[in-house]
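Continued from yesterday's entry.
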Amino acid sequence: MKKNIIYGFVLLVFFCDSIYSQLVPGQVFGIYGGSQAEHGGLIVAAPDGGFLLLGETESFGNGRFDYVDTIAIRVDSEGKIVWQKTFGGWGSDYLTNVIKTADNHYIILIISFSFEKLITGWVIKIDDSGNVIWQEALNFGFSSALYALTEEMADGTFVVGGRWYDNYLHCYPSLLKLDTNGNVLWQKKFYKDDSIDAIVGLDDGGIFAGSSSALYRFDKDGNLIWCRKIFDFDGTAQNFMEDVKKADSGGFIVATNRLRPETSDIYSHPEVLRFSDDGKLLWAKRLVNHPLYCHQIMKKGNGEWLMAYGKTFFSFNEDGTMGKAATSYLIPFGPGVGTFLSKNKVATFAEDGNIAFVGWAQNVGNYIGKSDEIILIKTGMNNQISGGCSWMENFELEWEDVEIPVENISFEVQDFEVDCVDTTPYGFVNPSYATGLNTFCPVIYSVEKMQDPFKLKISGDNLFIGPYTCYAEVTIDGVPVPTTTVKDVYTIIAKKGKSLKEMLPKGIPVCIKVTDEEEPHFQSDCFYFTR
């Protein structure tokens, strides 16, 4: 795997100083999954106000324990499933990137272990109904992996980037330019211990690319214009390039994560770097007081940007002025929610200008034994998030200026041969059957009276918090039941026969609720039961 799994889910929340007990208008919550684990990774806005969610699944298609397929779930503006597909074969097929094209189609990038070579770059174009328009399985070198993907350029072309492996499994950077039908226009490789991790297309048809140790500028034909070696990232620090964007006022903005072994800090910290058009470093900022990984930078306009990291979004300006941040703990328990593999499209702007996020959550959802499910959050009312068993808080950020030595280097970029595998014999596109749930709160589906001894069996979903603790309280008309046994997140047994009978007068409906003892706002609605 290229990157570590990160426990944290990003949520953009601004200018909100209080906790709300109700949903903010415009919010959407969605939880999607099957009998095994699902990990949500990427999201793009769909033309009808809905979203395309992508991730990995062990439940559907050819996915199974320790082998995953890529899953695509198309939802409407309310988070309801429109269609869903899986992409994958007998091996694992890991999602790495996605874009929406000008014709409202989608291009999906997958690292596949299902074709004949060890690793294959799989590029698929689908329409808004999930139908495959074309697909290319691209092999080059001993094996090849593709991570980075530009937005569609003005002429309909796009560039993918990643790494190729020689017979000794040494990896080197690679770039391929494809036309609107998936045909390879040119392909470039160079012998340098590196990998293209993030790229952005430019107005002249060229690209700006970032890696763990360098920045590259190529023209529209794939010729190297300049390369800037970032020495502080090479050898003295473990660095991951996460996202690059064109700045409004010229030049580029780069988001990275860096682990500095010369310090006692064991965590990576987000960094924001600003470069000029010719690769000169203008400023660099490092977040000191909040570790974890950054995922994505998003353009607000007029020189203002957002960057997602961990459970947080913060704003910054192109002059290096760093803004405030806020965080939201969507589900108030330890494992929380997270993004998978630090992919750099975990959020998107919704049709109404608010933000939608995809990630994965533990111990919520529809299936016994379930560990992870895909989640969707859409904010409402000026990007506020509240209710739905979540809250948010603001906090201060501490930044430090970073001195990073940058030096120009040059090397030869070469053409190489690409084997475009005929995908016709491979039945790698299959239906998926994920189900949806639209709340993080406890949900009561049914209450059943049982005898010998007298007790109630309460069935539902999300009935307790966390994987290790079972602190769920059952109340009847606001009075706690003396004894309860939490079987799992789907079943609670309310006991104490005689006293329980007294709380359930015959013929009179009562309000039964499930509440977390430690987090009282984590509470189900009333389920009205009549004995």
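--- second protein ---
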Amino acid sequence: MAIFVGIMTTLLPIAYALFFVYLIAKMPVFGRLKIKRSIVAGIFVLKITFGVLFLWLYNGQFEDRSKADVYKFFDDSAVLHAAAGDNFGDYVSLMLGYGDDQDLHVYHDEMQNWIRQYDHGFSNDNRFMIRYNALLRWVSMGNVWCHMVITNFILFWALILLVLALSKEHNFGWILFLGFLMPSMLFWSSGVLKETLALIGICWFIHALSNIKSKPFQSMVIGLLALLILLNLKVYLLLFLVLSLAVYKLFESKSSLKFNGQKYALFLAVGALIILGIGQTNFGKSKMEAIAFKQKDFKNIANGGVICKNDTAYVFVPDEQREICIIRDDQVQFVPGASFSYLRLPNTKDTLQIDDYHSSATFDLVFENKKSGSQVYVPALDNHLGSFVKASPNALYNVLFRPLPFEFSSALLTFTSLEVLLIWIMVFAALVYSKPKDHIQWNKVFASLFFVLAVYYLIGVSTPVLGAIVRYKVPVLPFVLYVCCLIADWEKIGQKKPVLWLKSFVLQAQHQA
């Protein structure tokens, strides 16, 4: 039996991959880019290869599966999927998010990530990821490699739809398609992560809007699916996307740089302030306060260490002092003579210090993590707009220019630093070889640029780890390339030798497509 399971673990994802390659060869949508289907299929296979690399690295990096984003949702989905056999009504309630939590607590308790350790009042995106993986289990036989292959095909299809939507009035669709080869896109979007599904939602949302007149019913269905994804995963992406598109539509008839620049700056600044300042999260916090709490918790995770508690104390032990903790079965004891800081419960206002601790008392483990190797400085936020303004320069620097080459020993971050350099080369080339100002569609430029910078800013002010910053930027990377494509004069650039070589390659790829 074990041999059969091992064979199926290997063969089933390969069978899915071959089936999807067949679909790429046959489905009309994959031929609309006028690029050889063999090239399109080859890039899909490359993406699957990076998915294999992604899972392999995650297998080696995390000894505890419950701490790996890929596996913690996948493992919890087994509990949800099993509910279908135990009580199908409970399964439906868990999948759709209704019903009395008291009746379902037996499932909640068994899943380690259904209730988030850190909650800031936003939607619980963990549950959506668990539900998504539980849905895939109906066709994956509980094989995580199948989840990776299926998700990569859905994303690849969605990215094709995005390219077709963005290049509908232009001839640079093949350049956007080559953007799939950017290192961050290949690696971080190849795993079953929140960013992967969020990118699918963005692609579907824009595709639905661009085809709402020609295919109203299909577009409505795809648009609703996109809303379902973005509202449950990354609502800030949806808010900034809708704001960008709304202002674009408002000034669609205007094309001058001066008019668009002034109006966009005014309307988008006001819109961003409204998003940050008005309304409350589920816990009654303002959005600025919730973002500040999220940053603080992220810093605690990045600093690493051990957090534990009992009925009278809440204890934090820095990563450097981990050796004073004895951890067994989610219980913590301290070695004789230990020194540590703690908060007295239930009053948690003052931090107290205890030295030369001698007790066999046990504490419940709340959090254990190693210190992040790519931590960067981010100014602390509070519930005031001034702190967000003060944090802006450092936040944008981290997002726009880092990681610097060889800034960290991580091979992945070094590789990503080359991508950052490549992006700035593309931006510089687009500005140097730009179209005449009156030939540039400034509405599209400003709408896309605002979407990118707004997302970048929010990532920058709340995220103190470069590895996470690189990952969180993935859903907006296609729009960075899109802005460059809108500004650049491809006739000028096409006269350069490297581009001539690339152009000949693409023309050859388009031949007999």
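The two ends are 46 Å apart (CA to CA). The first helix runs from residue 2 to 26. Will compare against the first tomorrow.
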